[in-house]
Amino acid sequence: MLSFLGPVEAPAQRARPAAPATQGGVIQRIAIEGNQRIDESTIRSYMLVSPGDPFSEDRLDRSLKSLFATGLFEDVSLRRDGATLTVHVVENPIVNRIAFEGNSKLSDDVLRPELQLRPRAVFTPQLAQADRQRLLDLYARRGRYAARVEPKIIKLDQNRVDVVFEITEGDATLISRVNFVGNHAFSDSRLKEVISSREEAWWRFLSSSDTLDPDRLNFDRELLRRFYLKNGYADVEITSSTAELAPDRSAFFVTYTINEGERYQIGKIEIDSQLRNLDGADLLPEVMFSEGDWYDGELVDRSATRIQDAVQSRGYAFVEVRPRVNRNREEHKIDLRFDVGEGPRVFVERIDITGNVRTQDKVIRREFSLAEGDAFSAAQVRRTRQRLEDLGYFNTTDISVTQGSAADRAILTTRVEEKATGELTIGGGYGTDAGLLASVGLRERNLLGSGVDAQINTTLAQRRSQIDVSVTDPYFLDRNLVAGVDLFHIRRDNQDTSSYSERRTGFALRVGYAFNDHLRQSWNYTLSSRNVYDIDDDASLAIREQEGTTLLSQLGQTLTLDYRDSRIDPTDGWVIRLGTDFAGLGGDVKYLRTRLDGAYYFPLERFLGDPAYVLALSAGGGYLWNWGGEKDERIVDRFFLGGDNLRGFEIGGAGPRDVATGDSLGGRLLWTQSTELRFPLPFSSDLGLTGRAFVDVGSLSQLSVPDGVDLRDEASPRVGAGVGISWKSPFGVVNIDLAHAVVKKSYDETQIFRFGFGTRF
Q: Are residues 554 and 657 in the same domain?
């Protein structure tokens, strides 16, 4: 029969040196009884007496404790039979099996590694209680402080037991309220936006920010400290962060205690250069604040970094910039002096890379802006980290610097945490451009860890369908060459704008190279068959005469000068692109099309105190020259204005038009300009919502058409203005724009509401 016992309790240790507790005499023999699995020699090895030793009460007592300390025995007793010492033991049982009951939030595979008990190991109540506490700690780390764990045993034959952990997981214990004590300059609601911990809310079911995490509390203290330093409170102290558990263990109440101190303004700003032929006054433009501004500790550090980078760019390899702070507590001002001097001469001894299980070492090393033996440069290390992050292969990237074999040698250790780079996407959505759409794609951005990007995508939509296959090697032949090939088949339904449909089938070959970290160029050759078909009977004559198939043979290049802080999500810097397409190397069409685009990103953090405020200015222009004659000019090669490049107007809604038929005809001269303010919305950042306000200006003109076309071709600019929201939802990015055509022509087609949605799962 199996017997079921209740909760395990550790039995009291019973040290019973029976009748012969008296001193005197010599142990002639040690007898062992009660043991089943454990050899007598093993038991004797734990004792502190042996035959020939006297009967000593102290040594017998220590022997008894030594046997208990092994954890092998449930009970041990000693007794004296004349000159014989008899040791009676009751062995602890052996664990046959370990099971969990009642767990659903955490699987057995998650719980089992936390246990010290193992099958075929010795069972002790102490180990069972220790494992119980480990499981409770594990649930607490997952926010379930109300969880209960009870270890129970089922006795089996041959002194074996099954151990069952009965678990009541309970509800998650979330942060119910966040309080601040000592804050006067900022309200509780403002400080709640600063910290990463959040009060529980129904929309946070995909986030863990409302779960109590001691590490997050410490991080919140640092965030609060930085926030106050950023706003002039140089003496701020975050004295404590405490979490109080409700009596029913259903919620936490988190309290941060703050000593704000006084607020300081910037006083005098000086740069003291100790380098030969370098005047400190020349470096003042690198300082990111002015006299009279509120003190910002973060901007002080960033200014020191900018000064160091500027000095190194002038040929000084070893530079050290130290900001000196002098508080004037009476006037509440801080004078700043940046000491610029020669830093220690340090060279890179070795570059180590860890954490890359799949990505090849060379894929990471080729992104480094410095090599072994080069002079160490903190700016180059930062640039390298950004380049690695821009790859998109890693969740985290960290480059640490340690001393090498000598004081002037540095070891760079790069630690990366890889993420999945393969994507199987099945999606659907709606866009004002394409209508209802469905897509299927397969992509591997880091094929076999080599950095090669290979993908195949298919999109089916109401007004656009396509399939394309693409392979790109960012370091072709292990050189500074980006090489790739594209195969594509695209169908576009332009009936709503120009009364025709279009089909393109072909391939493109690409190659590119970088001159340095900021300047790069790419070349491409495209061979494509274009078919203009399904033309309405009442379409414009300028469209009907272009029905049929043409072959495009085109050579193009793009020259890019990029000084943005990030290629993925830029908030600072600028970029300029010059693109040129030359058609006529065979094929049916001959033209030269050129385009110049640029964008400038200006962070408003200095003025508004939030890095989410960014002013983005962009502009572009293009021209199409036909050198094969006007009859060879094709509508599929022209520029169109409206939609993405001029919000407030439909795609092709502005520019040259046959007003008799309403068809948009495109143009040869295009220019656009956009001013956009990006800002955070007054919602939790967990929602992934950002806002924007914009003004778009553009013009499209210069079109030649056959006689009989009622053409309106005016170069006067059109203007659209509006606001928009982007939502990084769990199901994809949703973009909504409301725009008004402020300046337009009577024949232009406008669009007030613009919506785009896509999802991948």
A: yes
